[in-house]
Amino acid sequence: FTPPLAGYYRVGIPLEMDGRIVSVTMDRVVRKLKADFFLTTSGAFFASEELSALLKSVQPDLHFFPSETRYASGKPTEKRYLLVHADRQLPAFDYQRSQYGGRELVLRRLERGEDLDDFLVKSVRIIAIDAECATGQHFFFLKNVLLVDPIVSGDLAHTIRNRSLNVRLMPLDHDQSCG
Q1: Is 24 exposed, middle or buried (0-12, 13-18, 19+ CB in 10 A)?
Q2: Which of 38, 63, 89, 146 could form a disulfide with 12 if both were Cys (CB 3.0 to 4.6 A apart)?
Q3: What is the model's pTM?
Q4: What pLDDT was estimated at residue 121?
């Protein structure tokens, strides 16, 4: 980011972009970027123009910022990419049905009525989504869960595949998906 951000980049926190330029230089091992979606070491996600247009159409609360993407040699990437930013994270993690480190402790804390914002779920092995909380959402990040990747609805995953976009998707179990 030029000029640099005041702190670290984080999904779920509003991002002030007035006058900022987003530049991404690929590692030397990246010779040809074919992906339509990628993550940088700073935790920022980038989508190709085609994927960005799709995401805008299904998830209007996302923000998209043009970026300059180039290889280590200085040559621009073949596709143009936009920074994809979400100002909020969705509290759609199903604490009861998911499997994660410290699950019993978290469930006891929830029984006592402790605030979910007081702890962060880590070491997630199986993700279950609270479908009620995720109604109408097609691309989101989970609140209070240490998980880098976004969650996409079944409908959005289907459209991504139908359009032959190069996005690695890991499906949730059918009864756990949120769309």
Answers
A1: middle
A2: 89
A3: 0.84
A4: 92
